[in-house]
Specification:
The strands form 2 sheets. Strands 1, 3, 4, 5, 7, 12, 13, 15, 16, 17 and 19 form an 11-stranded mixed beta sheet that branches. Strands 2, 6, 8, 9, 10, 11, 14 and 18 form an 8-stranded antiparallel beta sheet that branches. The N and C termini lie far apart (about 60 Å). About 15% of the residues lie in helices and about 40% in strands. By secondary structure, the chain is an alpha+beta fold.
Length: about 280
């Protein structure tokens, strides 16, 4: 009797563990209504891989697929790869094969420990490019920056890197929402800092959720972990392919998806959320 009871207890415990694991897996892969998965967790066959030195085999090695994630600089790479040599051979992106204009794009990322290329200058650096009209390295388009400066404990995720666009700020240094006194200014070519107020995960092994809302050349909004951290209007381009970067540090990407829109959503709908 005791033996049967013990087996039953072990069975219940095992089923509970399996049940919890299944729930967690479902939560991770749950797709919001209207969204389409762009990365199936198994391969990058529907993406174009491109790195600076043009080595197709190295690109496949660089964008390794592991446990349903894209793992950039996986265990096949040393802890320090071409560090500060000026080569930067693995600077690159994996691009969608088609163009997009009006959409909501989501992805998650977390940092690893390996460092590479010009890490000394840009620390933990990667990003997402959209409205790419020339996919050279680096491309002509608009970047949603993904970056963490560990020297100053400063997060740059959500920054813009772009040509001239109309950007909202008060001091000309960081984004400030219109509801908080931000004014539209003609942004310079280069970096446009995001609001530093959003919560973020740096080197703790936890995931960050990024969202980019794009309405052709009318406007785009950058979100980080649910908070709007940057916004611009009068974009220099109206459509293009989308890419996720490899640059100066090991990074993981997962849950890459998009919701295409037939019509533009008025900006004021999203501005209401800036008040919260």
């Amino acid at each position: 009797m005791k033996r049967k009871y013990t087996v039953r207890v072990y069975t219940i415990i095992l089923l509970a563990i399996v049940g919890v694991s299944s729930i967690n897996a479902q939560e991770k892969t749950k797709i919001p209504k209207g969204f389409k998965v762009l990365f199936n967790g198994e391969d990058l066959d529907n993406w174009d891989l491109k790195i600076r030195n043009g080595d197709a085999e190295l690109a496949k090695k660089l964008y390794a697929i592991e446990d349903g994630m894209v793992h950039v600089f996986n265990d096949e790479f040393p802890e320090e790869y071409e560090l500060n040599t000026g080569e930067n051979a693995t600077h690159g992106l994996f691009y969608t094969k088609r163009k997009y204009s009006k959409y909501i794009f989501r992805f998650e990322y977390k940092w690893g420990t390996k460092i590479a290329n010009n890490f000394g200058k840009y620390q933990y650096d990667a990003g997402m490019y959209y409205h790419v009209v020339d996919n050279k390295i680096w491309p002509i388009g608009i970047e949603y920056q993904v970056r963490y400066n560990h020297k100053e404990n400063q997060n740059h995720t959500g920054d813009y890197w772009a040509k001239e666009l109309k950007w909202y700020s008060k001091d000309g240094k960081t984004f400030l929402a219109p509801s908080e006194g931000g004014l539209p200014v003609l942004g310079h070519k280069g970096e446009h800092r995001a609001s530093p107020d959003a919560k973020f995960n740096a080197l703790n092994g936890e995931w960050n959720t990024c969202e980019v809302i794009v309405m052709g050349d009318k406007y785009s909004i950058h979100k980080l972990n649910g908070k709007i951290v940057n916004m611009a209007t009068d974009l220099p381009f109206s459509e293009g392919v989308i890419g996720l970067q490899s640059e100066t540090a090991e990074i993981y990407y997962r849950n890459i998806m998009i919701k295409e829109l037939k019509k533009s959503i008025p900006l004021k709908k999203f501005l209401k959320k800036l008040k919260h």
